[in-house]
Amino acid sequence: MDRIIIKGGTPLRGSVRISGAKNASLPLLAAGLLCEGTYQLNNIPDLADIHSMIELLKQHGCNVIYQNNMITMDAMNIVNTTAPYDLVRRMRASILVLGPLVGRFGKARVSLPGGCAIGTRPVDIHIQGLQKLGAHIELTEGYIHATAPNGLVGATIAMPVISVTATENLMMAAVLAKGETILVNAAREPEIIDLATALIAMGAHISGAGTDRIMIQGVSQLNGATHTVVSDRIEAATYAIAAIITRGELNLMHTSLDLIPTVSAALESAGAIITPHDTGFTVKATDTPIQGIDVMTEPFPGFATDIQAQMMALMTLCEGASMITETIFENRFMHVPELCRMGANITVHGSSALVRGVPYLSGAPVMATDLRASVSLVLAGLAARGETILNRVYHLDRGYETLEEKLRNCGAHIERRTITTYEAE
Ligand code: UD1
């Protein structure tokens, strides 16, 4: 078991190469189940969730080689269309194999993911969408059993809630369906565009990805393809906040401001100076205090819920009051008590958190509860006076590639220590 120790107070200065997006890589890997040739993915981040997805694909029968951030795989000999509970409970995004398996093989048995730390997170939209495409669905013994012995048939699917993975699952199911599918009220995240780009490279007919209406003309077969994964906008935004919260300056490379339009606007109104360049952007704190701002989480292009916790860490040190309203998940303020242990002044009222800026945070032992909550505590620790000890670091390993190394290269005092289970309790 590991913990991270941070000695705060050093302004970060230097360059950070932003990795490929975890949330693009996971559906892109699942899409490998659809193609009948060799599939190559570049810029895949080396993260625990990626290894979980590879394990899942291998037990379906895929050949997968992962080296130097590159995946080479084929799905020529699929032996098993079940995604077992043990793997799905470890990573909810395992649900992404449902669409491709039913689409290509006419059957899938995928464990229901259940709730998670940030909310109940149902999968009803995935299931109803597949039913619209003609799949017969039964929910028994904790599993989704989906069958379509004669293949799926295109349909118009109006999704009642904007869901990223449901849009991806239904897009992957529809590419091999007979006829036309129209996804209405589709998610518009950059990861959806990235998935559509890879599917089109395999031979799929898709238009409208990146808008709320995606049109798919089914084809009979998809071929191998090569694709480079889009930059991780959540990681980029996290490092942008790291620059500001430590009153430093970072050059973020291999990314783009276009991926974080609302976040960059919010950071600028707080007083940051953000300058785009050819391969990314620089973020700099000014000498004046960071100003309190109000944000509300929304589907893309709105302010991402995956950046809410990091933004809250920044707000704890802003001048004046800030308000965050979380509209996507019902229980995503678990970092609040931990930030308060470091001296933050935050009051939660239902889905909104009122953050009154304090002059400084104090290092403390804190507990990570989920991926983005964990990194918000790292950000707070980087800015705090004294030492912060972050426990349950495995959450961070799900989503931030070489976090300590990237931060250390910019001057942070951060290290990982392996401890015994006894010490951890
Ligand atoms: C994805 C991201 C996650 C991000 C989230 C919101 C991946 C692997 N994960 O998760 O990091 O926080 O988008 O941007 O890409 N909902 C339903 N029924 C469904 C599906 C979703 O009611 O069948 C609700 C959810 O409970 C939530 C909202 O829709 O309130 C949006 O969730 P969704 O976009 O589906 O999140 P994920 O795709 O699971």
Summarize the structure.
A hairpin with a 2-residue loop joins strand 20 and strand 21 (352-356). It contains 15 helices and 24 strands. The longest helix has 13 residues, at 48-60.
What would you note in describing this structure?
The chain has 425 residues and is of the alpha/beta class. It has helices at 22-31, 48-60, 85-90, 98-105, 124-132, 164-174, 190-202, 233-245, 261-270, 308-315, 335-341, 371-383, 394-397, 403-408, 421-424; strands at 2-7, 13-17, 39-42, 63-67, 70-74, 82-83, 107-111, 136-140, 143-147, 156-158, 180-184, 205-207, 213-217, 225-228, 249-253, 273-277, 280-284, 294-296, 321-325, 345-349, 352-356, 365-367, 387-391, 413-418. The strands form six sheets. Strands 22-23-1-24 form a four-stranded mixed sheet. A four-stranded mixed sheet has the order 2-15-17-16, covered by helices on one side. The longest helix has 13 residues, at 48-60. It is elongated, with a radius of gyration of 22 Å. The site of uridine-diphosphate-N-acetylglucosamine (UD1) has 20 residues, from helix 1, helix 5 and helix 6.
